[in-house]
Amino acid sequence: MRQARLNKELTQQELSDKCGFTKSLLSKIENGHISVALATLSKIAENLDLPLSWFLEEKEEKNLVIVPSNKRVIRGSSDEIGYSYETLANFSRFSPIEPTIVTIDPDLERTEPFTHKENEFIYILEGKINLNYDGSSFLLERDDSAYFKGGKPHIFLPANEEKAKILTILIQTQN
């Protein structure tokens, strides 16, 4: 991330100002001292003109990517975030879609909505969530799905005392 920022000739302060968070937070992210939510990484990616997958995948470009379930890496698991996520077989670091499994901890403390530039498709794999989207709340259960513009404030909140797993696909839009 630091190299991408330097390639754009931005200081930490300039990038953190563009993203709307503190220089201290950006420094902790760059140095790997904290786990961050996808929406935070998305905001950084947007301000560096990079796809979100650029930060999530460190694999070389291939024509076929197969990721066995026992080889997926779970990231972002933190009491502070309440979400963990697993990237799924991203075809390319520059792919216009980014499939991920998000797990929502029932003890999630964050309730402030996120925004990001990508559209988002979600499919509930396990459990129940409340999708708070642009001021409205929607209860989604296993096998329910939704598709929405990420630029509107949204957040997935636990609907009960059980974890929920969501397949989420971020889809880059053309400007």
UniProtKB/TrEMBL annotation:
- Where is it found, in Gene Ontology cellular component terms? cytosol
Residues of the signal sequence? none
Among its keywords, does the record have DNA-binding? yes
Any idea where the HTH cro/C1-type domain is?
1-55
Keywords, alphabetical: DNA-binding
Nucleus among keywords = no
Superkingdom classification of source? Bacteria
Task: Write down the SMART domains for this protein, in alphabetical order.
Answer: HTH_XRE
Pfam families named in the record: Cupin_2, HTH_3
Q: Return the PROSITE patterns for the record.
A: HTH_CROC1
Gene Ontology MF annotations: DNA binding; DNA-binding transcription factor activity
PANTHER family, per database record: BLL2473 PROTEIN, HTH-TYPE TRANSCRIPTIONAL REGULATOR
Listed name of the protein: XRE family transcriptional regulator
User: What is the organism lineage in this UniProt record?
Assistant: Bacteria, Bacillati, Bacillota, Bacilli, Bacillales
